[in-house]
Amino acid sequence: MAGPAQDCAPDNLICGAGEIFDRPGVDARLAALPGETVDDMRKRAVEVLGAEMRRGRAAIAAAVSAHPLRARAATRSYSWLTDCLVLAAHRLASEVIHPMANPTEAQRLSVLAVGGYGRGEMAPESDVDLLFLTPYKITGWAESVIESMLYILWDLRLKVGHSSRTIRDCLRLGEEDFTIRTALLEHRWLTGDAALAGDLRHRLWNDLFSGTEREFTEAKLEEREARHEKQGGQRYMVEPNVKEGKGGLRDLQSLFWIAKYTYRVMDKADLIGQGMFTADEFDTFAKAENFLWAVRCQLHLITGRPNDKLSFDLQVDVAERMGYSDTAGRRGVEVFMQDYFRHATAVGDLTRIFLTQLEAAHIKSEPLLQRLFRRKRKLKDGYVEVHGRLAIVDEDAFLADPINLLRLFDEALRTGLLIHSDAMRLVTANLHLFTDEVRADPAAQKLFLGLMLRHGNPERALRRMSELGVLPAFIPEFEPIVAMMQFNMYHHYTVDEHTIQCISHLARIERGELVEELPVASSILKRGVNRRILYIALLLHDIGKGRPEDHSILGAKIARKVAPRLGLKPKEVDTVEWLVRYHLLMSDMAQKRDIADPRTVRDFAKAVQVRERLDLLCVLTVCDIRGVGPGTWNNWKASLLRALYRQTLNAMENGLEDLNREQRGSDAKHSLRRALEGWDAKALKAETARHYPPYWQGLHVTAHVVFARLLRDMAGKHGEIGIDLHPDEDRDATRACFVMEDHPGIFSRLAGALALVGAGVVDARTYTSKDGYATAAFWIQDADGHPFDAERLPRLRQTIHKTLNGEVVARDAIKSRDKIKKRERAFRVPTHITFDNEGSEIYTIIEVDTRDRPGLLYDLTRTLAAGNVYIASAVIATFGEQVVDTFYVKDMFGLKFYSETKQKSLEAKLRAAISEGTQRAIE
Fold first, then answer.
1. Are 317 and 468 in contact (CB under 8 A)?
2. Are 491 and 624 in contact, with CB atoms under 8 Å apart?
3. Fewer CB within 10 Å of terminal CB in the chain, N or C?
4. At a CB cut-off of 8 Å and minimum separation 6, what does 239 contact?
5. Residues forming a β-bridge with 832
6. Closest CA to 300 of 318, 288, 320, 313
7. Is the dihedral of CA 513, 519, 524, 527 positive or negative?
């Protein structure tokens, strides 16, 4: 049993014991307290202990600041400081406030630390969990001592969790509740009756723990699964919970709990002696645990509360405090998070090894599915099935041929078996066998390609290969992106996990699982493409990230070197290089340009040139967007990509000259006449004659019908505003159509009205009719990126009406709503503004790439309106905290902005509006 807390200070505190708590000095000051009332005595004692606690915490915090990676010393120091406070409170309560010269047998009282405090591991804001142990029903004296102790500790603002129990209570409750049982497993005697604490220990191990090892193990593993599910189920969550998340501290603690319960190990280093880990694996365990504790301590110190979530705003502070700094191409916070995820991955590896060892010892059940479908599989020579896992018969023979390091994964996929931990250990210990000669071996190349192409679930092999180091060993260029975090709100995963997610989505499309959701991509794959090219392009599309250069350009250069090594022919290599270089082209064209403008499709078709590239790029783009994270793919993006693909394919098959405005206009008028059945010829003629050509080319017939009816209803009504709000489920947006008398700044007023109702604009276009009406169509989404619910539309309409009628002044009303959340302020989003006079035949395209916020579109359009800029349409693409607002504009004379002077003047005004708005949003 651990020695009494009062014996001496533990070894390896982060600073001198006297700097943390001056025991002799505190004892002297407490002894000198005047003997007044109990309340006065307690109050003065709290003043003494509070001052010493603050001094001790400041000393530990200063030492942590100077030595941020001495985490274990820090957790021991916080625990020891807490011991000193609890012991002082106990002495005061039992010897001064409620003295008892000769306590009876029934009046014995023992104070124990349980849970994390019992382990002697505490972060700055950890709870203080205490067990007050009595032999029988609690006596009045013991109750008074406990109450006085708690009041002192509470007055010190400690977060105390406490229970008062007998040994029988502990056994009964521990049998019923595994959380209580785990807390008791970690108990540590602090003060009071030592014999009573010894009795508890004996009874726990002999009457409760013994014989229930399997039951406890299964319970802890179920808890682990539930905890992971609650935290998001991914090791690579970009805002991980350091304590509860996958690969976090609780996972390591669970391993030790199971080992302690099963083998009675009292020190984590004993895991080596039990054969659970090798010395190298335990070193990995210790380093991961130390790093995670270091992060947790910093989180508590920064926030001043028990916060274990590494949110975006805190990541920057923690990285800085732990000594990470910015380098060329990468921020310090990204390097820090890469280290974090590598440690989290290591925790996952250790967990797998540990659990396999438990299965071998029959302490943990095999996975249910393996038990249900148990049958002897026909394995290739050199392999054997051990406890339902794929193991190696002869390690020396296996290592004699380095290509076996790849064959192991192929055999695992072929048989559906999980790989045995001993085989995984063998692989990780021999990654040096992947030499240039092995990488160039056609047999190795064929095997690697086969892992992606042959078995239908390539993500399983790739993820395990990445975690064990095989993927970066076989493709060294992959190593820099392993566990690489991109510090933004758009990407949900690390770069390597994103890559594997993309390949997983491709495999799902191939398996026919997404035909309804992805009809175009599914039909392309059904028709047939070069799968070697597609899989290798996806594997390498982000391989250039994390360097100062454009990752598409650098990635293409890397692909040029890597693709031949993976067995691709020269023509295939050319296509892979092109796909990596232009893997963002289709996404950018679809989301940042107006695909109703024929020039957009024409330019894209010219860039792609041939159908093979179009098909491959389309599927790659779909997988890339879907692989970013849950919720990133939606019907809006799907509809844009489908339209761009079909229009480009049509242009390739029928000639680019087929993309002319006149033909589109006449087709649109013909469609409207058919749709407006029942209208007389005169009304139809008036409607088709009142609009200029861009109106017919830029909208679908459904919008033309809405505008025709709104305009008819407004005939002769001066100053009226016509509004039609309609959920467009196919595009995941609400279509808002407006008709009003035309005047300057219409676009800006509409943007302001929509910002006030919390609508995010994804697409918008305005037109002026020949008889002086403005017709504007906006596609808007709610805060979750979906169409507005039908019940919200009446209020939406009312607020928009009030704003457009001038009852609400958008410029003033928007200030309170135009805020950037605290957790998002750590992101750096540089502003880029470009003017393009080639992308459209009749408009200048102004692209503004900057930080998103609720009032941004209103600020930009108001600035453009003030500069006499006519906005014909806007396309808005949001990527987390970053947004790209693209405007198709003309000057007041209907001309493009060719003058460099005018462009620079306009850019300066837009930058000023962005800067002022951002400053206002963070105040």
1. no
2. no
3. C
4. 309, 310, 311, 312, 315
5. 849
6. 318
7. positive
Question: Which tokens sit at 6?
Answer: 């009062």
Residue 18 burial (CB count, 10 A): 13
Structure tokens that stand for 681 in this block: 């010829």
* 531-583: pLDDT as tens digits: 999 999 999 999 999 888 999 999 999 999 999 999 999 999 999 999 999 99
Chain-centroid distance of CA 468 in Å reads: 22
pTM: 0.85
Q: List the structure tokens of 637.
A: 């993006």
Tokens of 654: 């029928």
By the 10 Å C-beta count (0-12 exposed, 13-18 middle, 19+ buried), 726 is classed as: middle
- For the segment 419-442, the average pLDDT, to the nearest whole number, is 94
| Pairing mode, strands 844-851 and 832-836 | antiparallel
Q: Output the CA–CA distances (angstroms, integers) from residue 263 to 7, 178, 432, 869, in the order listed.
A: 28, 18, 35, 77
Rounded Cα–Cα distance for residues 791 and 784 (Å): 16
Residue 278 near residue 428 (C-beta atoms within 8 A): no
Main-chain phi, psi angles of 430, to 5 degrees = -130, 30
The DSSP secondary-structure symbol of 721 reads: -
Q: Of 261, 109, 74, nearest to 193 (Cα)?
A: 109
Q: Which candidate, 889, 723, 695, places its Cα nearest to that of 802?
A: 723
pLDDT grade, residue 371 (50/70/90)? very low
For residue range 792-818, list pLDDT tens digits in order.
888 888 888 888 888 877 777 787 777
Cα torsion angle, 506, 512, 513, 514, sign:
positive
Q: Which residues contact 331 (CB under 8 A, 6 or more apart)?
A: 487, 828
CA–CA distances in Å: residue 506 to residues 453, 509, 582, 620, 622:
11, 5, 18, 8, 9
